């Protein structure tokens, strides 16, 4: 009886050790490449939301991470930062780029979302995201719903974004979290100056 | 599960494709089957990952089958499976990050895919390494086949594309439901029905043929 229990313990422990050892090796081997991918995704996002930037510098103020864009002449090309928040199905993560004078949005780029495919999932599409280009952020961005039969007209000056039909909650989530973050960004950067 | 007949190696492989197809016959691995078949490429990626894990775990379980005490076999099998799934997950994250993002949480969920634990328990723990390899390949192929079928139907009807390429023109109103879970259930149900219909036809043929042999 004692021998049987001992065998069980030995086998299980060995299984655990072998598994752990093997995984440690594989993990170490894949770590550099995984880190590279993560950085690539981040950089790609930064350059999408700051179209003039060819380089960037990462800074941290009051716990908030900012990516200062630098254009090809070495001048400031705008500021990018991550925005996270709850969507309809799960967390939405995006990169947002604003102009250096904090007056307009340059672009947004949804990095992660698990919204309903075909509906809320459309927030990752170009049609929705390009509405944010050049939007004024002097005040909050408003979400509007298109009435049936009314043609949507670009309203960059009025800072409005049209919600996706059938995906109001996802659309509103995106707009709300951008508003919240921009308010915080303005606050932090004002103090920083 | 069916008693282990004495198949040759080729039969060991083939049975996973039709006669003992894990998805259509045994209704195993339903979770990924329903979740990642909204496009063919996702189904293919998941199928490949499962083939890899199934092969590795079948081989590993078969190798250690004589030294693992009966009472702790499930725990040991699961440790094996989880190890290989983690390897597959890390590999995807490093080499194919887009696929990894598309499959999302369903790669780690391969650990609890009933097909893998089921084959480990019902077959690999009682068979030679060689047989286990063919069984793993066959079951994995059968699973991938099922995913491809479902993925094709759902992607064409739901997005109008195949492997991301537009093949239906603008005239076809996309059946968005096909991309959603409800569409997955509907498609799967229809496919299982067709499978059963075809299998029944085969079975009556065999029994009729049996009359000829003495």
Written description of the protein model:
- The complex is a heterodimer of chains A (193) and B (214).
- Chain A has 193 residues and is of the alpha+beta class.
- Chain A has three helices and seven strands; from the N terminus they run H-E-E-E-E-E-H-E-E-H.
- In chain A, 40% of the residues lie in helices and 26% in strands.
- Chain A is elongated, with a radius of gyration of 23 Å.
- Chain B is mainly alpha-helical and 214 residues long.
- Chain B has eight helices and two strands.
- Chain B has helices spanning 9-14, 30-35, 40-64, 73-95, 97-103, 114-122, 129-159, 181-210, and strands at 161-162, 165-166.
- In chain B, a hairpin with a 2-residue loop joins strand 1 and strand 2.
- Chain B starts with 8 loop residues before the first helix and ends with a helix.
- Residues 207-214 of chain B have low confidence and may be disordered.
- The A-B interface holds A 4, 7-8, 11-12, 15-16, 19, 22-23, 26-27, 30, 33-34, 37, 41, 112, 114, 116-119 and B 38, 67-69, 71-72, 75-76, 79-80, 82-83, 86-87, 90-91, 93-95, 97, 101, 104, 158, 174, 176, 179-180.
